[in-house]
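Batch queue: ligand-bound targets. Current item pairs a single chain with nicotinamide-adenine-dinucleotide. No template structures supplied; prediction is de novo from sequence plus SMILES. Inputs echoed for audit trail.
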Amino acid sequence: MKIALIGFGYWGPNYARVLHDLPGVELTAACDRRADRLAQIRERYPAVDAVASVAEVLDRPDIEAVVVATPASTQCDIVRVALESGRHVLVEKPMALDAADCDALADLADSMKCVLMVGYTFLYNAGVRKMKEWMAPAAFGQAYYLHATRTNLGPIRQDVSAVWDLAPHDVAIFSYLLGEQPLWASAIGTRVLKNDREDIAFATLGYKNDVVGNIHVSWADPNKVREVVAVGSLRRVVFDDLNDVERVRVFERGVSAAEAVADTFGEFKLLVRDGDIISPKVEPSEPLKTQCLAFVDAIATGKTPLASGRFGGGVIRALAAIEKSMRSRGAAVEVTGR
Ligand SMILES: NC(=O)c1ccc[n+]([C@@H]2O[C@H](COP(=O)([O-])OP(=O)(O)OC[C@H]3O[C@@H](n4cnc5c(N)ncnc54)[C@H](O)[C@@H]3O)[C@@H](O)[C@H]2O)c1
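Prediction returned. Tokens below.
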């Protein structure tokens, strides 16, 4: 399968390496509008056709699929022309900055019978998959809340806020773990780096049965954290992407309220469960490679990928509600849409 890469900035080279080495795939062309990036493509991959425009990629009839790794604000237009030309598309998150655009792209993909997939790498991360395994309802109990922290000193984006840059990952992880979309959002953001966009945010998403998911993102925190915590009535499950030794930890502890005996009617007895802390084995794998294999598989089999365009649209709806809530100092905003 001949694939082209569009965008060879910070993240694109990771795709180039993975696609170049992927069995059954030929990285045929790579595109960037900057001359210095084109020079790097030629130096690293002399056999790959280095081109400066999307049109030159799409003019090549042998290319079946494209991977788009350009800045967030440019992706929607590039994805649209690629789909219109009949190419399967894997686009980096967030795909588009507007839910209506996401819906239109997903509809277009359907009508062209093309795969549209979004680069939600964490859904292809063995640690996040392990986390979901350990959250199976019988052992996890009633889901109470999720909490995600994604902090570091930048890298600061010029076209979108920290919410649109970082939170898509956590919204996607929450949707994957809970198997549902949020119903409402409430968020506060601040601009400490004199950007005209938020560089720090605290966002809460509400799900069915009063489950809440809290997301903290920051470009202004010297402590790099990539952590997701899930707390249920029977267990606490933690994913720490920066911990190579114990990527997932499970605390076999929890508390729940049981109705007390009749003479204390109206009061509840707390049932505390105590147990071990376990570090389940997480098989080493590169999430980006697993994600690219899923893209190729979706093209070959016609199966809808986990991180489909429709799934991506759901993430954008939640981000739009977070954005709206930040404008009204945290007022709860309904997540609307399809
Ligand atoms: N999944 C992840 O973990 C992850 C990590 C980093 C970045 N990303 C995503 O990857 C995307 C790219 O991020 P980045 O950090 O590489 O950005 P970047 O700005 O470093 O690189 C983008 C590149 O795209 C090129 N470009 C822009 N418009 C173009 C066009 N019309 N045609 C051809 N080339 C064009 C630019 O010249 C630049 O080299 C973003 O959507 C970002 O959210 C995802």
